Amino acid sequence: MAHAVIIGGGFAGINAAKRLGKSGKVSVTILDQRNHHLFQPLLYQVAMAGLDPSDIAVPIRALLRPYRRVRTLLGRAESFDLDRREVHFDGGVIPYDYLIVACGASHSYFGNDQWEAYAPGLKSVGQATEIRRRVLVAFEQAERASDPEEQARWMTFVIVGGGPTGVELAGAIAEMATFALSKDFRTINSADARVLLVQSGDRILKQFDADQAEYATQALRSLGVEVVLGSRVTNIGASGIEIGEQRIAAGTVLWAAGVQANRIGLQLDTPLDRAGRVKVQPDLTIPAHSNVFVVGDLAHTPGPDGNPLPGLAPVATQAGCYVADVIIDEVRAESAPDPARRKPFEYRDKGQMATIGRKRAIMQAGKRKKNGFLAWIVWLVVHIYFLSGFRNRFFVFLKWCWAYLTFSKGARLIVQKEWRQAESEMLSPVVGSLDETYRQDTRSPGPRFESLTRASQPSAD
Amino acid sequence: MAHAVIIGGGFAGINAAKRLGKSGKVSVTILDQRNHHLFQPLLYQVAMAGLDPSDIAVPIRALLRPYRRVRTLLGRAESFDLDRREVHFDGGVIPYDYLIVACGASHSYFGNDQWEAYAPGLKSVGQATEIRRRVLVAFEQAERASDPEEQARWMTFVIVGGGPTGVELAGAIAEMATFALSKDFRTINSADARVLLVQSGDRILKQFDADQAEYATQALRSLGVEVVLGSRVTNIGASGIEIGEQRIAAGTVLWAAGVQANRIGLQLDTPLDRAGRVKVQPDLTIPAHSNVFVVGDLAHTPGPDGNPLPGLAPVATQAGCYVADVIIDEVRAESAPDPARRKPFEYRDKGQMATIGRKRAIMQAGKRKKNGFLAWIVWLVVHIYFLSGFRNRFFVFLKWCWAYLTFSKGARLIVQKEWRQAESEMLSPVVGSLDETYRQDTRSPGPRFESLTRASQPSAD
């Protein structure tokens, strides 16, 4: 029986695995360095303490449980032997008849990887919880701070990059500060938080039409977000960012700018584009290897207009299903992999959406556009619908109803730090982490704090 | 207005803060190095992937939001100046009129602190998610392993310590292996997992009567747990444990044995007991400082029978409320702190419970005892009832219904590792973590894996 190996359990990999598994005609091994499939479109809600990781992440094993001929392995692919048809990973070697590479993409810091320590991106659950920790800790630090300048720095949040993720993060932080946290602090007024969305281009949301982007910009501004256009960040450090000569002191900087395909693409020695994506043929294979498919954000797939298809869940999902069908057909026909027999991949554009805060969104599919509250309702329904695994759908829906009615954020926990402390001998502190900021803090003289304490004593009034 | 400083947001601290806040007669500053109050009794369910951290942890700020004269600070207390009535913490100095120290306890490794890296305890959310990660990774490693011996090691789980936590962990792992994971793996049969509960004494659950402990032992054995009595662990390493001459190879070792009070107690220069707990007077103060109270697991509080009161939530809660009342009385009476006027603290025994798996529990209050399914129902109701914060109660109840009906575990995510990789330059790998075990793995020759792959190809049958 033919054996297909899938690298990556994202939208492309999972959907290919499911379809191949259903067919029963192919045995499958799916390899991922993480044990869970992640519903990326809602990841920003985990970062913003609205959802728990387990609401939007499901163990790959659990998703593929029904398919007895699909095997899940936790491990990291390292290289390929395309002639011997083998995948080399950190646990050994796996031979394949068909190979599907779907390792996705991560953020690009445009050659300034040192910025990542100060401005984490949002691609994994681990990064989401780290961002949550930093945002919540920033408010805590502001509450502690007595020096107004330091306080202002902690109350400033910079999001770099005006794509959907940046827009969603900026809107969510502004709303959290205004609503969820408003009654929680005594020294600061969380609603005074400054949220900047910095975009190098002359407008945000380039993926959308200008009028939609304009609507989103106004919506963000109405939430108090400062949308800074035409500004390229030239440096990021522990104390904030630089835009050319201009310095902006910020306690929290988040990165939502460039995208860089997974470096595994280099192992396929075939042409890549500037973002490191593998240039694939109409049947999503690489030249000279008709049994090796590359799909999802890792692939540079030419669209109808010649531009590559965007890195969206629907694109990855459709590509994964397409590849599975191609393989099943060939296995059924007992024919060898043959590009000539395959009809090319065609993407059916389902459109795209972005949400701004808790009751506005924009959507656009071809010529059809929508924005405002109705679009937000559609956004809600669509995301609940596509969320994998019924339990998650169920609980996410309940949590959203709850959050909408109460304005509260359920998951406002600062965890990472804790465990770091527990094993402080084993882990070196992370730059820009709380430990770090504490150290900055203790440099300032102790007594200064008394004033704050007095201020807090209502006996003063 | 009198100012009370509370160190620690556990059951004792939170309840003292709430009551003082309600009175409006005292301004309060509560200091904790974590931003959340943790419902410890259910922490093992987070470790066992049944609940999410945010189900049992609530931000201290959110809990105290209603009380305008209560201020929450994130920070770590470092020392006290009892004469100048000041708390020194990592952010400065806080003066107080009344001081309530409630920093709790952590695990004691009986002088073998190096064991912690191989056998984490279960006291914080960070530790719970780390334990979850290790248990889930162990099954993944077993699935990957081709060497039967290595596989057996990964399938062996040792819990050290036969108290309620040890019993609850052992029962939960055994059930997870038998039910939740049973259909998820292809190479291993998760139900073959070996779960050992190692206890140095001649029986488990010393806090309970012998017959109750006997019932629990039988219940554990019926779940497949090997209860090993009269065995003191003499060494713990990456590959397992030693009991005298006997070595037990285990991929996962969890620590639920000794308890060690928070070291902050040393800063009060007053007598401590062997567990490092502060010996308090009948009014829960320390000698010569009638405005300094020590409550909760940090305190050695003499009970009616002369033995110290156990480290239970009800004890901490009642002590916190008692201290708040004492302070409020004195403030109302405008009298200076005066031990003579105070009636001593009296603990009203609410009894204690432990649960074994998903439908059995034991409970005991004085002479009254119960066990079996009915006790489990009571356990369920009591824990839901006392869970702080309505949202949590609501969602935990739903998740339990769900889990009970489906046998599924919702939160089976391996996260920590991920983020470690993302910042691998910044964090050194943790001994015994996945990174480590991977390295062990890659030492073995790659090709050996092929056999496993073939085995997985149904074409073989």
Describe this structure in words.
The structure is a homodimer. By secondary structure, chain A is an alpha/beta fold. In chain A, about 35% of the residues lie in helices and about 25% in strands. Chain A is built from 14 helices and 25 strands. Chain A has helices at about 10-25, 45, 55, 60-65, 125-145, 150-155, 165-180, 210-220, 315-330, 375-385, 390-405, 415-420, 435-445, 450-455; strands spanning about 5, 25-30, 35-40, 55-60, 70-75, 75-80, 85-90, 90-95, 100, 105-110, 155-160, 195-200, 225-230, 235, 240-245, 245-250, 250-255, 260, 280, 285, 290-295, 300, 350-355, 360-365, 370. In chain A, the strands form eight sheets. A six-stranded mixed sheet of chain A has the order 5-2-1-9-21-20. In chain A, strands 13-12-11-17 form a four-stranded parallel sheet. In chain A, a hairpin with a 3-residue loop joins strand 23 (about 350-355) and strand 24. In chain A, helix 1 runs parallel beside helix 9 and helix 5 runs antiparallel to helix 6. Chain A is elongated and about 70 Å long. The model of chain A is unreliable at about 415-460 (pLDDT under 50). At the A-B interface, helix 3, strand 5, strand 8, helix 5 and helix 11 of A face helix 3, strand 5, strand 8, helix 5 and helix 11 of B.
* Quaternary: homodimer
- Catalogue the unreliable spans of chain A: 417-461
In whole angstroms, how far apart are the ends of chain A? 81 Å
Strand count, sense and closure of the main sheet of chain A? 6 strands, mixed
**How many strands in all of chain A?**
25
Could you estimate the helical fraction of the residues of chain A in percent?
A: 25-40%
Share in β-strands of chain A? 15-25%
- Given the helix and strand composition of chain A, which structural class is it? alpha/beta
Radius of gyration of chain A equals 24 Å
Roughly what is the average pLDDT of chain A, rounded to an integer?
87
How many helices of chain A in DSSP terms?
A: 14
Record the strand order, biggest sheet of chain A. Answer: 5-2-1-9-21-20
The most extensive interface, with participating residues per chain, is:
A-B, 97 and 96 residues
Overall geometric form of chain A: elongated
